[in-house]
Design goal:
Blueprint (H helix, E strand, L loop, with lengths): L2 H6 L19 H6 L7 H4 L10 H4 L10 E4 L7 E4 L2 E2 L1 H5 L4 H4 L3 E6 L8 E4 H17 L8 E4 L6 H12 L2 E4 L6 H11 L3 E5 L1 E4 L2 E4 L1 H14 L5 E5 L17 E3 H5 L12 E2 L3 E7 L7 E6 L1 H13 L8 E4 L6 H13 L3 E5 L10 H9 L3 E4 L1 H10 L13 E5 L5 H11 L5 E5 L33 E4 L14 E5 L9 E2 L3 H8 L17 E9 L5 E6 L3 E4 L2 E4 H8 L5 E11 L3 E10 L7 H14 L9 E3 L13 H8 L14 H10 L1
Parallel strand pairs: 4-17, 6-7, 6-8, 7-14, 8-11, 11-12, 16-17, 16-18, 18-19, 19-20, 29-30
Antiparallel strand pairs: 1-2, 3-13, 4-5, 9-10, 14-15, 15-23, 21-22, 22-24, 24-25, 26-27, 28-29
Helix pairs in contact: 7-8, 9-10, 12-13, 15-16, 18-19, 20-21
The protein binds 5'-O-[(S)-ethoxy(hydroxy)phosphoryl]adenosine.
5'-O-[(S)-ethoxy(hydroxy)phosphoryl]adenosine binds next to helix 13, strand 20, strand 24 and strand 25.
């Protein structure tokens, strides 16, 4: 696909055109207690003080050995932070809090069934459980520092316990979102080279206890076919002692964690001191081509960055009750449910289920009961809660001081409901823009320093220096209000180190576009290309418009159109497939599928159903398309390329523009009749 065409199918084009909104100001009460009230932070983190400024974040952590080089650019654009430093992430999130906070809850777990009791896991209890699991992973599973292990787990306390146990050993965890299919998990096992899969028998979703272990068998089979053998599958049980899956355990391969753990009661293992640059975890995300990319995150740089941003942007103090409603299976959960909050000795709420289960009052009942004062979620959940229960928040006596929105652009109308109704006009809002690749926030307002503007993320956070380029690499004037590609001029400690096992793709996708000299070792020559379109208003605030590549942001989850298209092509009758994003009232964007059949086949409902099923098997239910259209032919250029832009316009009831240069312009009219 040519550069031009990539831009043409961008979501930015179909983005809603918002009006400029007025600013809201943080309350004196919020400012009075905030962690960061010094506007001087922007001077301290100016480009002039780069990269040494990030010492301020690294100093929030406890190091076994202090680093000698803050930023090493010798292997540009693979940046090395805090070189020479030695650290352990688990120690920083657990052990070091014991003297002051051993009896404070690290996590409060809220099961989805409302009659199941909450579990408060103190730092001491977390310490004990993490040690037991770490000993098991070392002695029973044979894991060593640097090994990879795939986790395919939902929102249960055993997930962060397992992650921290890995971190304790310097083992690299790769957690796959629980809602992903067995096949998607298997591909990630193979890509990361994991010999161990850790999963669970089942979990609750909308009132049903789902069978999750069945996905493990498929995952192991898929990995094996690709050439990666899994020796052991460790299975947590949602209710220890009771097996919730219909799939049999495989003798000699599958083990119940609760049973094996009995042999490790009270066992301890010292945290392994690892170089700051050792990977902490891999997180897969969708890209332009079919294969998911394993974003490799470092230990020292990543943990510094999430600790710093959790402290100053999430405004977390140890006494706060912080609830991020994301799933730990996504980067938001890694950074802002587990590592950032725990590095600060916060109390982090972990909710198993769906926000609207059993009704739209659920989150506010949880907030009232636990006295949550910091709340963090995505526009999709806000839209859902607003639709299902616009007046529910008023019925509950909770008070947020701070709220976050993340993952998608938020419409000003939705923002205002969040502010007035959910936040009761008391809470500040931060609209945080960032990506799996980034480790932590890139753009947002600083909650006590800036006013908020509905629909806009805000400025670059301290130490992040954004710039907007046009396609040719010319800088779009600051504050011009003109759309372009948002890039970051400088590296930062939270940035991923590379794509696991594929440096070439890392350079090509994120740095090649605007790099003037690929041999340069100077970070100034390597702006980071984010793949999002953005505008900067005269007040300096950035508004993110959406992806400029073939990624669809469905309800805040990134899916690659190519991944979905490959799944469609697995259906025998399908000859060609094109997937486009369509605007959806609740989920932001959802995929819509166009397929053309092989000669000799006729369109029928069964083929449509098979396409949906194939997508669910390959990726998971989150990728389920809004519609499947079986079309007589795809609109194509004379050189035979499918014009996804035309299909996207049809799906979104927009103007298809001039189609006379297509090889088959008549087909556009036929498809329009079908869609409208
Ligand atoms: C989008 C999620 C508008 C953006 C942390 C980005 C946003 C992609 C915002 C990354 C926001 C994220 N406003 N758009 N506040 N935050 N995005 O990797 O398109 O799951 O590129 O990381 O989500 O999604 P990812």
């Amino acid at each position: 696909m040519s550069e031009k065409e990539v831009v043409e199918v961008s979501e930015a084009e179909i983005a809603v055109h918002w009006q400029e909104e007025g600013h809201r100001h943080p309350s004196a009460r919020f400012i009075g207690q905030a962690n960061m009230t010094d506007p001087g932070i922007y001077d301290r983190f100016s480009l002039e003080h780069f990269p040494e400024c990030f010492k301020e974040y690294a100093d929030l952590l406890t190091w076994y050995q202090y680093w000698h080089t803050t930023l090493d650019t010798s292997d540009a654009p693979c940046w090395k932070w805090f070189v020479g430093g030695k650290i352990n992430a688990c120690y920083n999130c657990v052990d070091r809090h014991l003297p002051a906070y051993k009896n404070k809850a690290a996590f409060i777990y809220v099961p989805e069934p409302e009659d199941e009791p909450h579990i408060a896991l103190t730092y001491q209890e977390l310490y004990v459980r993490v040690n037991e699991v770490a000993t098991l992973l070392r002695d029973f599973a044979g894991l060593k520092t640097g090994d990879r292990v795939t986790l395919h787990m939902p929102m249960v306390p055993e997930l962060p316990i397992t992650m921290l146990a890995c971190a304790r050993l310097g083992v690299i965890h790769s957690e796959v979102y629980g809602g992903f299919s067995g096949r998607a998990c298997g591909e990630r096992i193979w890509d990361s080279g994991s010999r161990l899969l850790i999963t669970i028998d089942g979990y609750y979703r909308s009132g049903n206890l789902l069978d999750h272990k069945e996905k493990a068998d498929e995952a192991v089979a898929v990995a094996k076919k690709e050439g990666q053998t899994v020796d052991k599958v460790l299975v947590w049980r949602r209710h220890p002692g009771k097996y919730a899956s219909a799939t049999p355990m495989v003798q000699g391969r599958d083990y119940f964690m609760d049973e094996v753990l009995k042999g490790y009661a009270g066992k301890k293992v010292d945290p392994v001191s690892v170089p700051a640059e050792d990977p902490l975890f891999i997180m897969y995300t969708s890209g332009t081509t079919g294969r998911p990319k394993g974003c490799q995150h470092s230990t020292g740089g990543y943990l510094s960055y999430v600790a710093g941003t959790s402290k100053y942007i999430q405004d977390i103090h140890p006494k706060d009750v912080y609830w991020c409603l994301a799933d730990i299976g996504w980067i938001t959960g890694h950074s802002y449910i587990v590592y950032g909050p725990l590095a600060l000795a916060a109390t982090s709420v972990l909710y198993e289920g769906v926000p609207t289960y059993p009704d739209a009052g659920r989150p506010w009942r949880i907030a009232e009961r636990l006295d949550v004062n910091i709340f963090h979620t995505a526009p999709t959940s806000i839209r859902m809660l607003r639709k299902a229960g616009p007046d529910e928040p008023k019925k509950y006596n909770y008070h947020f001081k701070h709220m976050t929105t993340v993952g998608e652009p938020i419409e000003p109308e939705v923002w205002k409901w969040y502010y007035q109704v959910v936040g009761k006009g008391e809470a500040v809002i931060v609209d945080t823009w960032w990506q799996t690749e980034n480790g932590g926030f890139l753009c947002t307002t600083m909650p006590a320093l800036h006013s908020m503007k509905p629909g806009s993320a805000g400025l670059g956070v301290p130490g992040i220096h954004p710039v907007i380029y046009d396609e040719e690499g010319n800088e779009i004037a600051k504050g011009a209000g003109k759309a372009g590609n948002i890039c970051i001029q400088n590296p930062w400690p939270g940035a991923f180190q590379t794509i696991w096992g594929d440096r070439e793709r890392y350079v090509a996708q994120y740095y090649a576009k605007y790099c003037k000299d690929q041999n340069s070792k100077d970070w100034r020559d390597w702006p980071y290309f984010a793949g999002d379109a953005a505008v900067q208003a005269a007040d300096g605030y950035y508004r993110i418009l959406g992806r400029v590549d073939d990624v669809i942001n469905v309800a805040g989850h990134r899916l690659g159109t190519k991944e979905i298209e490959s799944a469609c092509l697995l259906v025998t009758e399908v000859a060609e497939a094109a997937v486009v994003p369509v605007v959806d009232e609740l989920r932001g964007r959802v995929p819509e599928v166009y397929v053309a059949l092989r000669p000799g086949y006729k369109a029928d409902k069964k083929i449509e159903a098979d396409v949906v099923k194939s997508i669910e098997t390959a990726i998971g239910k989150i990728a389920r398309p809004k519609h499947v259209y079986i079309v007589p032919d795809m609109p194509k250029t004379r050189s035979g390329k499918i014009m996804r832009r035309v299909l996207a316009s049809l799906s979104n009831k927009g103007d298809v523009g001039d189609v006379t240069t297509l090889a088959n312009p008549e087909v556009v009219e036929e498809i329009r009749k079908m869609v409208h």
